[in-house]
Design a protein that fits this description.
- It is a single chain.
- By secondary structure, this protein is an alpha+beta fold.
- The protein is about 30% helix and about 30% strand.
- It folds into 2 domains: about 110 residues, Rossmann fold (3-Layer(aba) Sandwich), CATH 3.40.50; about 110 residues, predicted glycosyltransferase like domains (Thrombin, subunit H, Beta Barrel).
- The termini are far apart.
- The model has no long low-confidence stretch (mean pLDDT about 85).
Length: about 230
């Protein structure tokens, strides 16, 4: 059975070259913008995601943020096509249970990873200081972290410590907010230090959160969205 892979590429010639290279191993679903990826991964399970380098370079920070959950779970790679030789080079690959440096290794990585549906979250860049604990009581060993982004249902917490593992419970104390009620969360995924050109940390899904605190976080999220939109149109 062939793999099912998302191919994100805008240029028709580059798309044709990538399709030809992978047609023996995978059926490719093509999109011409990164923002379309969460809509696919939230409805069906995919073995991998391939992103053309020029498309990735032109993508905005918010577009890359929108696909962060999908890339954390599904094996993915940045590809480039040599204009002279037509050779395809794998520039960066990670996800699933390992990493890859060649196209053959990437196919093996996709084959070894169980495909999963990844429900999209409307994440917004927002930095909040936080303390993390494996129990509701926060002791002197509470881990210091900060959010890189926040959504209605969770957040990404930057921390290089690597103390918390996927599926573990983590308690969060957001520092600097009016309501200091602790939040119970579940670690959905983890990015190791040095595993990618991105901040190490954990993606957390909120499992129990005080109503007033959640409302306060959403006010901050909406305010950040409004400020971002103003900058786009100034």
């Amino acid at each position: 059975m062939k793999l099912c892979i998302i191919l994100a590429v805008k240029d028709p010639k580059r798309q044709a070259a990538y399709r030809e290279a992978f047609e023996e191993y995978a059926d490719c679903v093509v999109v011409d913008a990164l923002r379309l990826i969460p809509g696919l991964t939230g409805k069906a399970a995919y073995h991998g995601i391939l992103i053309d380098l020029p498309l990735n370079v032109r993508a905005t920070y918010l577009e890359k943020l929108q696909i962060s959950d999908s890339l954390a779970v599904i094996p993915n790679a940045i590809l480039n096509l040599s204009p002279k030789s037509g050779a395809i080079k794998l520039l960066m690959a990670a996800g699933g249970d390992g990493s890859a440096s060649t196209l053959a290794q990437f196919i093996s990585l996709c084959t070894a990873t169980v495909p999963r549906i990844v429900y999209p979250h409307n994440r917004v860049p927002l930095n909040l200081n936080a303390l993390l604990s494996p129990a509701p009581a926060f002791g002197v060993d509470a881990e210091k972290a900060f959010t890189m982004n926040v959504s209605e249902g969770g957040c990404f917490l930057a921390t290089p410590a690597g103390r918390f593992q996927p599926q573990e419970t983590v308690w969060i104390d957001f520092v600097g907010v009016d309501n200091r009620a602790t939040v119970k969360g579940r670690v959905c995924w983890r990015r190791e230090w040095g595993a990618a050109h991105a901040a190490p940390g954990i993606g957390v899904c909120f499992e129990a959160i005080d109503v007033a605190l959640h409302r306060e976080l959403m006010v901050l999220v909406e305010r950040t969205k409004a400020e971002s939109n103003k900058r786009l149109f100034v």
